[in-house]
Amino acid sequence: MTFLGIVMYKKYFMKSSWRSIYVVSSLLTTIFSCFQLILIFQWNEKYLHISNYPFAMGDDVIQQFLGGIQFLPSCIMYMSLCPSGSEGATYSMLTTFGNIALVVAMSLSSILGKVRRRLERRLERSDSSTYKRSDNMNNNMPYRLSSRNYFSSSHIQCPA
Question: How confident is the model at residue 88 (pLDDT cuts 50, 70, 90)?
């Protein structure tokens, strides 16, 4: 869908002001990002009668399309800021930073997702003060008081 957004910009919006296109597409992206609240509160099934999967996919597709429309105006803006003759180096630097940011964001979200799942499992079991450590050093110490291997669920056992 990003490619279709780029093609749409080139075919229909190339003669328009890139500032207005960037502002309008940013506002539309913000509005469609708020649709996640509709998904969280299940209003899509209750009021719109659309199941979760198609609603979430439609939201992502529209955001990628708008990102494609934003791509060329942002490139034009960056190239107008860089000195003449160094456009290629500036573009490669910007895409490198963008790709690094994407990898870091995906890694952080993966780590935070694992932490969240472990914390949710711990909360589902019951009150954490009843868990005890299973290793020999801290066998009788409540788990809450021990800080070693805090996120490791393999060291948690329910009392008998």
Answer: confident
Above 80 in pLDDT, residue 113? Answer: yes
Token couple for 71: 């791509």
DSSP characters over 65-90? HHHHHHHHHHHHHHHHHSPTT-HHHH
Q: How many domains does the chain have?
A: 2
Let me know: does 21 contact 85? Beta carbons within 8 Å. no
CB 52 within 8 A of CB 40: no
Instruction: Check whether residue 23 and residue 65 sit in a common domain.
Output: yes
Examine the domain organization and report whether 13 and 28 are in the same domain. Answer: yes
145 and 106 co-located in one domain: no
**75 and 20 in contact (C-beta within 8 Å)?**
no
One-letter amino acid of 72: L
Cα separation, 28 vs 77, in Å, equals 20
Domain extent at residue 55: 2-123
Q: How confident is the model at residue 126 (pLDDT cuts 50, 70, 90)?
A: low
Q: Which residue has the higher pLDDT, 94 or 109?
A: 109
